[in-house]
Design brief:
Distance between the termini: 35 Å
Strand order of the largest sheet: 4-5-2-1-7-8
Radius of gyration: 18 Å
Helix content: 10-25%
Order of helices and strands: HHEEHHHEEEEHEEEEEEE
Strand content: 25-35%
Number of helices: 6
Shape: globular
Number of domains: 1
């Protein structure tokens, strides 16, 4: 029941597969543990190709709404609705530097359990064996599509997720663009990441003052900080 696959998902898949291959050699035991379903940790992949920027977010439901079963009470239904409303504001959840002139074109959300018959409030009994995913967990999966008028100016991304979801502690952020690839672990106190640029230039947009990072020889890994 994954409805979030868009016209550009094939491109995103191809790019992220390349990123996965590039990062495989850098993975150690700690990094493999980070790839698991861990409460408080979300994963974001940013892929830029031409004027399009695709951002894919995966997070345990518990990190965003505090539970991992189909909503059962009025309070849980309200919590889920608010979370989905926040996530639909993709340009607030992830803010690309203003110089790139990017605008959100689409935001699509799959909450795992949220669109099943079990999520219809009060119409079904709840079975703990089926309220979760097959492995006993439920994940939110979100895809944002941005269109940028000046994609060559793309230089930073700032996460607004932390403001809307207080249970979220870390985001493992990875990206791949025409100029390079890399990533690191972002926290509430440091939600801004500068993408590598072959010729770094000052970035003075709404994501904050600073300069894009110069591309390293082999930057494709997530730093556990």
């Amino acid at each position: 029941m994954n409805r979030i696959r868009t016209t550009y998902v094939a491109s995103l898949t191809a790019i992220t597969m390349c990123l996965a291959v590039a990062t495989a050699s850098a993975e150690d035991t700690g990094q493999r543990q980070q790839g698991a379903h861990v409460h408080g940790i979300a994963h974001i992949t940013l892929a830029a190709e031409g004027p399009k920027v695709l951002v894919e977010l995966t997070s345990p439901a518990a990190s965003l709404i505090g539970f991992e079963h189909a909503p059962r009470t009025d309070e849980e239904h309200a919590t889920l609705a608010l979370a989905k409303e926040n996530l639909m504001a993709g340009d607030a959840m992830i803010r690309l530097n203003i110089e790139a002139r990017c605008r959100l074109e689409a935001a699509e959300i799959d909450a795992g359990f949220a669109d099943s018959e079990q999520s219809e409030h009060g119409t079904h009994a709840h079975d703990p064996e089926t309220d979760h995913g097959e492995d006993g967990h439920a994940d939110f999966h979100v895809v944002y599509t941005f269109a940028c008028d000046r994609p060559e100016e793309l230089g930073s991304a700032a996460l607004g997720l932390f403001s809307g979801f207080p249970a979220l502690e870390r985001v493992l952020f990875q990206y791949v663009t025409a100029e390079g690839q890399g990533g690191r672990s972002l926290r509430r106190v440091h939600p801004l990441y500068f993408l590598c640029r072959s010729k770094p230039r000052p970035l003075l947009g709404r994501t904050g003052a600073g300069a894009a990072r110069r591309c390293a020889t082999n930057p494709a890994r997530v730093d556990a900080v």
